Amino acid sequence: MWVVRQKDEEFHEDDVYGAYKELFSMKIHHGGVFSGSLGRQYLNGKVTFVDLVDPMSCQSMSYHGTYMMYYHFLIPNSDLDFGLRAFGCDQDVLNLLQYVSQCKIIKFYVEHGSTKLKTYFVSPEPKRLPDEPSTDDVGSSRCRKRLCLEWDYKEDEKNKVVEGLEDVATNEIGNDVDALEDVATNEIGNDVDGLEHFASHDIDKDALDDFDPFFGQTYSAEKEGNEGAEGERSEGAEGERSEGDEGDTEDERSEGDDSDYIGDEEDIDYMAEVDMTSFNENVDWEAEWVGNEGDKEEVEYEAENPMDFDDNESDSSGSLESSRKKELRKLKKMHEKKEDIVGAAFNFYVGQIFGTKEEIKKMITMYSLHACRDIRLIKNDKTRLRAICKGQNPVFKEVGGSNKEVGGSKKKAKKASASGEHCPWVLHVSTCNNESTWTVKTYVGGHTCLQSRKLKLCTANVLSEQIMEDITPNPDIPLKTLHEQIQKRFQISVSSQQVFRAKKMASKRLRGDYEQQYLLLRDYLVELQRSNPGTTVKLEMEIEPNPHTTTRQFKRVYICLGDLKQGFKALGRDLLGLDGCFMKGMYPGQVLTAVGVDPNHGTYPLAYAIVEAETTNSWSWFLELLGDDLDLEANSNFTFISDRQKGIIPAIAKVFPSAEHRFCYRHILENMKLKWKGKAYNDLLWRCAAATTVPQFHAEMEQVRKFNVDAYNWLKQIPPHHWSRSHFTGRAKCDVLLNNMCEVFNKQLVDGRDKPIITALEYIREYLMRRLVLVQKVIDKSQGPLTPTIAKMLGKIKEEASQLVVTWNGSTEYQVNGAWGDQCCVNLEAKFCACRRWELTGIPCKHAVAAIWFSAANGGTVALPENWVHPHYHLQTWKMMYQFKINPTNGRLLWPKSDYPIKIMPPKHHKQIGRPKKSRRKTAEELSQPLVKGSKLLKIGKAMTCRICHKQGHNARTCKGKGTPS
Which pTM does this prediction carry? Predict the structure, then answer.
């Protein structure tokens, strides 16, 4: 007479228990396993309640999908270590009856497939239940079979099995092992999986006396090792749970976790999910519990997984619900304080399935790292993986005691101490039937050792994966800071060399590998052309003597984005700055850049390339590709400005012989300071370079000659049309003397020049994409006919023009007078001024502005000075130039694959002498800058002159030749 409570069904104890006092309720823990260490617990199980159970009618308890089960009941007010008793025969039922009168809820625990407890291997004396017919040993075994086994085949097949087992029990077959196999397989067929498993056990002939025909194994528990028991349970229980899931219907699975307990579809109503709320409210706890209050609460709410309880099942009265939630929180805290809490977090359990061995090794490594346990892999082959804990158990010695072993040799003492030296933690994983599935066969959790600070599995590769979150936002994080963060986070000891290698590996994952990126360079260039139509890409490789080889070494790459090309053509200014800068990564090289000037006097990068070095050949190759993109002929009157690099001068003369080539004033000054230093030389050179007319230039050169003839002769060797405005043509409408546009652009590339080639190219592209957006924001805020910078320049020119006096000749020419010597003729119709500033810049000079105002004041039909500015500086031109945007690109996984069969290899690497320099080489002017400390001028870096011998390099205090001046 069993009753399984339904949800929301009231349970009245007085009505039932009053009628028959021996009825009780069963709290069944099923679907899990017992832990093997002291402080036993039932892991990964479920809970089901069965009410109104008559102990005299306990005939069958089944579990769908499991052919062998072991039942245990727990003595009230006891723990799982010493209070478990077997529940498999008549004597066990009689033992249970003595507790029913005291406690109306008895806990039952189910083991599936095999048992590790010794309670089942203690043979009780045979007793008969009241009002039951007498049975022999065969009947007793049959009763145990009904309590532990469920067969899923037909009734007639069941009878065959029972008859076969009776024959075995009555020793009709004898000690013949082959006969046992015949009984298990005879006339049953493939459906009787349980007997096949029964017959497949290895049975020792010497142990047949202890053989139980019902269990299919010996009673000797000592022969069952931990590994074998765990492996048997994993193979049986895992498969049985999967079969049970397949047998359940969709409604049963959605009903609750206890649906797996249903053994047959006809018993769905009989074994349905129950609501224990009303039962808990009506049970008389004072009559049931003998122990203290804490024991009562523990037994009431004990469950391995607190989440199996449903808080919604409590009554709305609030008293029991609040107590229930309180106990759940208490259980959660107890669960978190378990000794092997990290093992529970990583969810190691017997029967666990993995796809690959690498997945298992990674999980073991993370467990070792977070638990601070020295886990070692002692087996690591194609089919097995076994891990043990090498942690040392603590050894406590008595005070004043002797370290010598008594009654044994030193060798025996060493063996005895070594037997319990290491921690018992073991994990064994292997493949199933040579398949690709890895299953945990043995797991002994719980550590008895102390935590370790040095871990074998904590390698630089493992640390590199853990510090990715620190490297990603801050790739240049100091090594010492990273070292401290690792030790603080994981509480382990690592060396600075490990941290260095880990950071290097993490940076490699973040930025990419130097060598591997050359293999993907073609795919990146194809993606770049796909995302940015009109982009010019040129890839050149080293010449290979053998044309049949499938590999080539990288030499050069040239990129000119299509949007930048269209924007530069929209401006129409024939001026570009050329410069190069060093690559600082593993493979040396040079980054060549071509940068223009936009209408607001800002930089506008056009093209860039990575070449082997700044040579005449590489610059000629770069200029030829640049000319093809800009549709420049060999006789084009284009204007270039450079730093006088020895390879670029002949390259421009070769590719564009008619072009105007300007030299950067700053580089000329640096060369001059190698011999003549000082502010006086700087001022003289600047006045010569800034002179806009030829007579003014000669006058300034005469001042240089008077100051220093040697400097004058050195400067005269440089043709003035390369560095002085007086000899510039006005085709570019820009009078720049400095190559600052390239210097500013190269400065922005410092952080990208030490990265692999694709990462470096992407760094340049992303910078250009972001810069166009920032400039567009400024354009949207600007107003007026001119750009902001040109409007400010014109405002200053107007202030200077207000001080001039204009005289008109009655035609189109004006005479404008200023201070002594400042008198120029202006022709408004030809847009010409004698000072040549208007011609060079395209912006009216102060003389032209004064003439414009005078013409407008005297009835002339002249527009405002802003209308006389060249269209290069108009706001509308600026907008047209920046309307072309650079498109983003996809990641590496989405790049189209190039069908070119030749693989690109890294360029030839030439190791430089000494440590590579990352900082910029300082100029002579920077080195000669005085150092000031407070109100005094320091003499650090200055050459001291001795007042005795008048020699440099020492002073009078350290002079060795005192009294003998030279």
Answer: 0.58
